[in-house]
Every structure is written in structure tokens, then in C-alpha cells.
Amino acid sequence: MLRNLKVLLAARPNGSVAHTDFSIVEEEVARPGAGEILLRNRYLSIDPYMRVRMNEGRSYAANLAIGDVMVGDTVAEVIQSLNPEFKVGDLATGRLGWQRFAISDGSNLRRIDPSLGPVSANLGILGMPGITAWYGTLKIGRPAAGETVVIGAASGAVGSAAGQIAKLHGCRVIGIAGGERKCRHVVDELGFDACIDHRQQDFAGALAKAVGAGIDIYFDTVGGAILDAVLPLCKPNARIPLCGMIADYDSIERYGIKNLYSAIANRVTLQGFIISDHAELWPAAVTDLAGWIASGAITYRETVAQGLDQAPQALIDLLRGGNVGKQIVKID
Ligand code: NDP
């Protein structure tokens, strides 16, 4: 009999996520009913939004209840099917949660095309983070050749893709990342023009120097003090895709932005977006991203933790900047 391993939300974090916020349970795998599929999860995506879902209340989607299986997208393999649309061995992605097995009626699954790259890439560059970078950069940022683009969390899943997409469109791209090692990766491997370490003492001064004449697009994945340092450096009519505010996710009190007035003075557009609102654009985004990867125009990295029991540590690491590229857990 198959045994399922599940990671549950055991407590709401008080600030930073702790191991005691999770519990791991083992139970028998349920049988699929008529029209249903039994899937074995192979890879689990670890994403910053998971931290938000651990809170009480509601954000743009319902938060988790205590005792729920932790929310997360997986790459999964069909191991039993009572649904004519899926056969054993098919691969799909879906929000199947932090668990080894899951049952689905197929409506929440997206088929994987294994010819496009390693299946785990469907959680990163060919999945939600890559598509987020594509949408925020091209549809909100609207880059033009010669413009100056600044990218928050530049070595991460979204930021690394966003910066490379802006480079492909002829922009000068400056990344922001935590630490010298990450900054070197951003310049040497991802091909950004410069990268500023946000942990250095005079971060705002170093950013201003690198930016020179001003910022046309700031792809904001971080919020907080970094957004505050960027705002006064924006050129007239700059665009800021507001993608995430990871600097605040662990905070009990949110950072208050001080330099927002400069957005009025410079006619800056700040536009928030949620990528799941744009499902109709996903196929076009995946076609572009897969083409750029195949031609060598963009590259990507994954940080892979081994074993479902390592998922809590992987989320803790991600929120502290322990990952380079897309954080994934390989489920054994
Ligand atoms: P990343 O792979 O970029 O991992 C998170 C990174 O954030 C860390 O590696 C760390 O990098 C950085 N970070 C953490 N805390 C801070 C801080 N206080 N100040 C500066 N940087 C910090 O994650 P993703 O690419 O998956 O997500 C990036 C952002 O995009 C998140 O805010 C996420 O919520 C958002 N997002 C939004 C979507 C949407 O639809 N709007 C969809 C997908 C993601 P470093 O070491 O460089 O500091």
C-alpha cells in the first residue's frame, strides 16, 4: 500500500518562518474516484508567496488554515488514471501541494512538454516565475533599446529572467542582489551590465553611481528600503512593475515608503500585477522563453534541496536569500 508524506501548516509564523510552523504526517494514499487521477509529485516549487499564505486573513487568494497541506506547485507523474484525458506516465504541473502523492480531476493540471527542457524548468524559467518576468518586463516595463533597467532580487528566479529579457531588448541592466558571490553570478553568468550588493553600507550611493542619468524601468520584487532608494533615481515617465515585496513578508510591521512623492514629480507609473490573472498569455510567454533558452539567449539556475522533509528548510533559506535561481525540492 502506498504511503503519502504531507507537510502541513502547524502554526502561523511570528515574523520569520520556523521549523515549528510545520508538521510532517504520513498516511495511506487515497484511491482515485471516477474521472480522477493519482499523481506522484517529483519536484516541488518553493516560492515567496507561500510565506504570505501562512498568515491569518486573506491576500489576493485565501490563506491556509492550520492543518492544511502547505500550498505549492509541483511537477507530477500520473501513476493511475480513471480520466480519459490522462494516461499513466503523463507529466503535468499543478498546485498539488507539499506532499508525495495527490489526487486531481485534471482541471488544475497543465501538461508538460518534456522536449522544451528538464521537467523541473516548468516550475522556474518555463513556469510561473519565468512567465512573471516576461509579463512584468514586456507588458508593464515596455523596454526600449538604450533604456536603463534596474532589477530587484536579480539572482533569483524572477529577477534573473527579467534582467536577461531586458538585455535582449537592448537595455542597460543593473541588478541588485545580496552579497558579492551573487553579484558576480549576475554579471558573469547572467550578463547584466552591473550588480549592486544591497547589503553594503552605502547601498543607495552605490546604486545612484551605477545608474548615472536615471532609471527608466525598475522591476520591483523586493519593496521596502530598496524601493525607497530607487524612487528618487527614476527618470520622468519611468515604469515600475510592482511584482513582489519580499522585504516585508517576514515583517510584523510593514516598511513605510518615504520617497513616494518623487513618483508624482517624475510622473512614474507603479503598476502591481498578479501573474495568475493573465493565463491567456502563458502559452505565448512559454514559447518565447523556450525559444530564448534553446538559442542560448538566456540561461537559468536551480537550487535543489533533496527530499520533501527538506521543504521547510528550503522555504526558510529562500526567504533569507540562500537560493541562487529557482528554489526547488526534489521529492524522493
Ligand atoms: P527569488 O528566487 O528571487 O528568491 C527570493 C530572493 O529575495 C532571495 O534569494 C533574496 O535574494 C531576496 N530577498 C529576500 N529578502 C530580501 C530583503 N529583505 N531585501 C532584498 N532582497 C531580499 O524569488 P522569486 O523570484 O520566486 O520571487 C521574487 C519576488 O517576486 C517575490 O517578492 C515574489 O513574491 C514575487 N512574485 C510575484 C508574482 C506576481 O504574480 N506578482 C509571481 C512570482 C513571484 P538576495 O540574496 O539577493 O537578497
3D structure, described in words:
- The protein has helices at 49-53, 128-141, 157-168, 180-188, 203-211, 224-230, 246-249, 261-265, 282-294, 311-319, and strands spanning 3-9, 22-28, 37-45, 74-81, 91-94, 101-104, 109-111, 148-151, 172-177, 194-197, 215-219, 234-242, 269-272, 302-306, 326-330.
- It is an alpha/beta fold.
- The strands form three sheets. Strands 3, 4, 5, 6, 7, 14 and 15 form a seven-stranded mixed beta sheet that branches.
- It is globular.
- The model has no long low-confidence stretch (mean pLDDT 97).
- NADPH dihydro-nicotinamide-adenine-dinucleotide phosphate (NDP) binds at residues 47-49, 128-129, 132, 153, 155-159, 177-178, 182, 198, 221-222, 226, 243-247, 273-275, 318, 321, 323.
SSE string: EEEHEEEEHEHEHEHEHEHHEHEHE
**Major beta-sheet overview:** 7 strands, mixed
Query: What number is the mean pLDDT?
Result: 97
Name the overall outline. Answer: globular
Computed Rg = 20 Å
Helix and strand composition category: alpha/beta
Share of β-strand residues: 25-35%
Q: Could you name the ranges where pLDDT drops below 50 across 5 or more consecutive residues?
A: none
Overall strand count: 15
Distance between the termini: 17 Å
Total DSSP helices: 10
Distinct bound molecules: NADPH dihydro-nicotinamide-adenine-dinucleotide phosphate
What percentage of residues falls in helices of 4 or more residues? 25-40%
